[in-house]
Amino acid sequence: QVQLVESGGGLVQPGGSLTLSCAASGLMFGRYTMGWYRQAPGKQRELVATVTRDRITDYADSVKGRFAISRDGNKATIYLQMNFLKPEDTAVYYCNADRVGFGPPPQTAWGQGTLVTVSL
Question: How many CB atoms lie within 10 A of CB 23?
């Protein structure tokens, strides 16, 4: 059974920091590009950051220089270090796994999400 379990969300003041984690199980972690997406109230889900199995990273323009994504193959876990948080970063953050090339299922998987609220 494939599972992506996010943790680390919560309430933080503007300018603060938070680190999200996503633990993957039931899939061949090394075959997947991993990513974080977010969905704010009333808005569509959007890409935040991705990291390939070769640790190549990509970021949405809105978070460049503030967020950092990383992965630990030994723990099958990815992280999102979020610094200088802004109220507009408030959203439910979702972990995503997207398989590269052919291989056993699933092609893609999602976590349940963790809420990040940036407010005074």
Answer: 17
Q: How many residues appear in the chain?
A: 120
CA-to-CA distance for 112 and 120, rounded, in angstroms?
26
Q: By the 8 A CB rule, do 69 and 55 touch?
A: no
Residue 7 corresponds to which amino acid? S
Pairing between strand 57-59 and 46-51? antiparallel
Task: Give the C-alpha separation, 100 to 120, whole Å.
Answer: 41
Place of tokens 């876990």: 77
The owner of tokens 């990040």 is 116
pLDDT digits (tens, 9 = 90+) for 30-73: 999 999 999 999 999 999 999 999 999 999 999 999 999 999 99
Distance CA 7, CA 75 (A): 14
